[in-house]
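Record format v2
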Amino acid sequence: MNAKQPAWLADAIFYQIYPQSFYDANGDGIGDFQGIIEKLDYVKDLGCNALWLNPCFASPFGDAGYDISDYYTTAERYGTNDDLKRLFDETHRRGMHILLDLVPGHTSIEHKWFRESMKAEKNEYTHRYIWTDSIWEEPEGMGCIRGFSDRDGSCAVNFFSHQPALNYGFYKPDKPWQQSTDDEGPRATLEELKNIMRFWLKIGCDGFRVDMAGSLVKHDEDGKGTIKLWQNVRAFLDAEFPSAAMVSEWGEPDKSLQGGFHMDFLLHFGPSHYNDLFRCEEPYFSARGKGDISEFVAKYIENYEKAGRRGLICIPSGNHDMDRLSRLLHGTELKLAFAFLLSMPGAPFLYYGDEIGMRYVSGLTSVEGGYGRTGSRTPMQWDDTANAGFSRAPEEKLYIRTDAEPDRPTVKSQIADSNSLYHEVKRLIAIRRSHKALQNMGEIEFVYARKNTYPFAYLRSAEDEHILVVLNPSGEEVSFRYKYTPKEAIYTLGGEISREQGMLVVPPQSAGYYAVNP
Ligand code: GLC
Ligand code: CA
């Protein structure tokens, strides 16, 4: 079952905003909805036409908001529900769309459902979470919270130990305390999830990025139970909100698409080989030229085939969970990375600040459960005023301190420099948006992707448009055999390819998009 795509998704280019760190409009040291509204024109001008906002709901912020204590109310620090609605309206007024982050797998221990479920007396929330029957029995393989409820039992957790797992049932229950997906408790959890979605979709969001979407039903090795659960959600969306977009943090497109998601992320963990590109000892996009693209491509093809040869796999530039793209790549390497990211199928996701090469800030004390991730969550660097223009609060009040390096990149300095990463990204986005073959649903065929070898080449196609992408991140001139002669160059960086005796010769550290007639 492949869900019908909302039309706007076909050329959506997302900009991910971590709301804490984007722009602080009221000067209290932390980003807010009004701040995002004030910077919408910046995002639009860059060429992005869609947003994904990390969770912005009531929370004790033990995991930066992925520990929700009330799904129906925004966190005060960002603004009210009405302010969020204003953000939706302002986004739409600019012809853009916006996804919220849906966290279906767990809540905070401070959620009233959890407090109710801790009670010894049976109540509406007794089965909202996964509890064993006795404090001495732990839910196998899941980690648990135990020893501070009146209820005699241990409660399974989903991520950190303050994030109890919501109960959607077990695929094949084999203990008395394990519920089946059809039991009343799990069914009520699912209905509540739909209520939450309905609530925000009615107010005006355009869909959701779904946190840990593939792990809702427990002991569900092949994902069959979880797929079925999302098909149930799909039926609800088809009936009530057919144009809502659903993007999953799942990493197995064959499963997530069956579950009715429109797109799935390529993840930096699991078998994707995404890290081979930008985040390993010898990244493919490093000028050292010692990387390998072949395993990434092999896995990509496998997923692409499973996804019905459609562009449903989103490759992010980064996100709030991984090191910044610029940790291991610099200068031209970053531009080449974007020439790749912005020419692949599936909606691209740009993590705020990656377009100016914001750095991973090392040595920070963990903030809100960020740990090593904190260095990728520092305030956006807008200009050369105090706090890089992020906030007018005193420095010590900032949510996370800003990158302290004197040469930190800023939006202002990058806009002033016509040779900057910012301008390259903007140029690449504009090119993508004006060529259907390069967009989300255009096909891809890998032309040249050999083990430990450069360049890397692929053909993007839609209808009768065909574009050959040739990337050579290495510092050496390389060549490869290609039977067709590329026509005009649509984009080049670092020089054009040339033809010599049936071979295409590719300059060092270069990228090019070429129209071809295969
Ligand atoms: C996802 C989020 C991450 C969070 C975790 C638990 O992986 O991206 O930030 O900590 O889920 O919700
Ligand atoms: Ca603020």
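The chain has twelve helices and 20 strands.
The pocket of alpha-D-glucopyranose (ligand 1) is lined by residues 63, 66, 103, 159, 211-212, 249, 320-321 (CB under 6 Å).
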